[in-house]
Design a protein that fits this description.
single chain; alpha+beta; about 35% strand
Length: about 325
Amino acid sequence: DDDDDDDDVDEPSSTKKKKKKKDKKAAKKEEKRKRAAAAVPGANYAERVRLKKESHRSSVLCVEWNRTATNLLATGSADETVRLWDVSTARCVATYDTLHSDKVQALAWHRKEPHVLLTGGYDQRCVVSDVRGKSDGMLSMPLSADVESCCWDIGNDSCFYASSEDGVVYCFDMRRTKSAMAVVQAHDRATTCVVSALCARGALGGGGGGGGDMASVLVTASTDKTVRVWDANALASAGSSSAAERGRGKKAAASAASASSAMLLRVTPKVGAVLSVGTCSDDGRLLVVGGSKGVSVVDLTAAHAEAKAAVSQADNGGSSSSD
């Protein structure tokens, strides 16, 4: 019996070496897997970073910082929820899971009422909510397709714009809850971004809505590779007739021509499909444009001058005058 015990304890050296080699190979393989995961953004992220319990369960599609309540951040996600975060404590302070029934694609805080939040989703709706209390939203407005972008009107605190996947841009007035105030076919493809801005009137050759030196404009961008600048007032007028004709079941061809007259400038920034546009707060002439093939800065004054020269050249039969 003693001899049998000794045989169990004294494992052959060849077996020990094989086991050690096998363990070493397994450890090397695991290390290689971890390095590969770390090299790919988002891959096995939960294994590498300890996520907060209240984190989104899917991709975060939009983020909006509250310019008045500067500690407050809103996020929208493919998990169909909107979450509010206190950046000073890095904690989620509220979750809204009934505002939308599909992915939340767009967010915009009201410019003057820090508790009012505008959201847009793939359920083809825009919702205005008061975040001081949990609710299903104060106002819900339907669109014709998935919402791509939304923003508040810089010239009217009661109005907001939204764009959809089918290229249509809507103007809604919270005081008129039955339908959109204006509906315009701004692009032939998805209108990925809408930005309400004030622009120096001289940059657009004197065009643009409102009075004084600054013009009220709406900037739209699309996967059709263009950025368009619209006279906000003229666009609303054209869009209201378009909305009326849509309501009567017409195609609104005449309104399309009217909407075209509201367009002040069309730019092709050569960044591929345009996905995002931002305005410069210090200089109303400048836009930063992000697309599928890069980023570009657009000077509206220079772009307007180029467009005007191109029209003049076309009117002269395609030939430029010479000395």
